[in-house]
Amino acid sequence: MKIRTILFRSSGLVLALGLFSLNSCTKDNGTTGSGLNAAAVVNISADESTSDNVFNEVFDNVAGIDNATAGDSLGLYGSDGSGVFGAVAFNAAGEMTNQATARCFTVTVTPQGKGIFPKTVTIDFGTGCDKGGHIRQGKIITVYSGRLGVPGSQAVTTFDGYKVDSFAIEGKHTLTNISDLGGNQRAFHVVVENAKVTNTANGRWRGWNADRTRTQIEGNGTPYYPLDDVFSITGARSGSNSEGRTWSGSTITPLIRKATCPWLVSGTVKLTVNSTDGVLDYGDGTCDNQAVITVNGVAHTITLH
């Protein structure tokens, strides 16, 4: 996939920046359920979903670098720009839209030449680049140990002064191909370390670490056609925020992500904040921007804008 088709999924971007609306199924003024703890778990479920989607976008970008962009098919797909999770774009309503826009960033590949590794790909937005109505600046840097479609290959992504609007993004994302040699199902180990998303306008931040496995459960037989791809995601995560809250979580049922939807469509995660547990449910498979966090039997709906 050409990188321009994968970086700017507009609804995913808004989600990644954490523009959440929290609407409880019952009024939550800090005394619902288990009081302040329940409210904290509801708020942290938003932070958790924010972090998850920031680094889902990193996976998309890493997987999408192809021959047309880098002079070598570094990602998972063909050299014809067909790619994944960006062959189409999404608007804020989650509807697929046409995305034929000019680049306002530069891509540098070092060293040049096919088959020479490790290879570093730097996406540089400079001091400000308006894509999809959001200003990006700084650099995204990925080092490939080999072509990502080959089992055992790894891609490590870091950031240098990277911001989207007023949100600064930090951390390390390591993607490793753990597919079986000769098998027909792709699988990847994803580790996120020391991630941090900071709203530079007000100083609020959220930190995140994750260790997950992403297994492609549909679309393996059509490697150059992205729109039938479906991934199952399992693993553990932990986080903290500027309000002094910390949490841990693990998948109860696998999280499901479809190429044709900008949001997770199903799956559940157990979140633990101090001694209070909540279950975050992404739905029944329908592509919508709703998730539900249940704390002590009280359900709270999270709308992802």
Summarize the structure.
This protein has 305 residues and is mostly beta strands. The protein has helices at 10-16, 36-64, 67-70, and strands spanning 20-24, 89-90, 96-97, 106-110, 119-124, 129-131, 134-144, 154-164, 167-177, 187-199, 205-218, 230-241, 246-258, 266-273, 276-284, 290-295, 298-304. Helix 1 (10-16) crosses helix 2 (36-64).
Please describe what this structure looks like.
The protein has a 15-stranded antiparallel sheet that branches. The N terminus is likely disordered. The longest helix is centred in the N-terminal third of the chain and has 29 residues. It has one domain. The two termini are 26 Å apart. It is globular, with a radius of gyration of 19 Å. The protein has 305 residues and is mainly β. The chain contains three helices and 17 strands. Strand 16 and strand 17 form a beta hairpin. Helix 1 packs across helix 2.
